[in-house]
Design a protein that fits this description.
The protein is mainly α. Helices cover about 75% and strands about 5% of the residues.
Amino acid sequence: MKPVVASSKSQAGLMFGLLLVAGLVAPFVAYPTFLMKLLCFALFASAFNLLLGFAGLLSFGHAAFFGGAAYVCAWLVKEAGWSPELGLVAGTLVGGGLGAIFGWVAIRRAGIYFAMITLALAQLVFFLALQLPFTGGEDGLQGVPRGKLFGLVDLSDNTAMYYFVFAVFFAGFALIYRTVHSPFGQVLKAIRENEPRAISLGYQVERYKLVAFVISAAMAGLAGSMKALVFQLASLTDVHWHMSGEVVLMTLLGGLGTILGPGVGAAVIVALENELADKVGSWVTVIMGSIFVLCVLAFRRGIVGELKALRERIN
C-alpha cells in the first residue's frame, strides 16, 4: 500500500505544481479577462462536481448559490463599501447558507424529486433577485468597484486582479481536492455507489449529503462572488436556470467524477462561447445543446474520463 500512497501523493503534487506554473504564466499568453472568466466557471463546475460526481446528487439549483452570492458580494462592495476580500467571504457564507437551507429541504428526496426541488427553490431566488429593490431588477447591479485588496493592491489593474482570482481558485480547488480524498470523501463515494450498504454500516447518510451540499454551495458562491468582482456586475443571468444547466454541461463534458474534468469542460465551453458569440449570435445555444447530446451519446465519461480510460487500456 505504501508505494501506491506515495505514488498518488506524487501525482497530486505534480498536478498542483503544473497548475501553479500554468496559472502564473497564463496572463502572458492569453487575455487576463478571459482567463478570469474561465477560472470562475472552473471553480463553479468543480463545486458542482463535488455534489454530483462524488455524492451522486443532481442539483438543478446551483445557479441560486452562484448568482445569489454574486448579488450579495456586489451590493456589499458597491453600496456598503466593503473591501473585495470581505465581499468574497460574505458571498461564500451566503452560498453556504443557501446550500444549508436547500439541502435541509431537498436532501430527504432522491433522484428526479431531489433535482426538481432544487430547481424550484432556485426559481424562488431568481424571483427575489428580480423583485427586491437592492438588486437593480432587470438591470442588475452594475459598476461594482473592484477596490483594493487588503487596502494595498489595486484590483482595477487586470493583471493584479487575475492573480487574485487565480489564488482564490487555487485555494478553492485544493479544498475540493482535499475533501474528495479525505475519509469524508470516501464515505461520499460509498453513498454514491451503494447507499443502503452505507446505511447498514452505520453512516448517517443524510448528514453526509447535507455537508457535501453546503460545501458545494459555498464554493459555488465563492465562484459567483469572484465573477461579480471580475466583470463588476451581478445580473439575472447569474441566477437563471440556464446557468444551472450550463454547469451541468461543463461537468459532463469534462468528465463527471474526475478532479480535472470540470475545469476542462469549463475551459471548452467558455472558449467556445468567447469565439462563437460574435459569429453565430443566438445559435451558440444550439451549438452547446448539440455538444451536450454528442457528449451523452458518444463520450459518456467526458474528455478527461475518456483519456483516463484510454490510458488504462494502453497500460
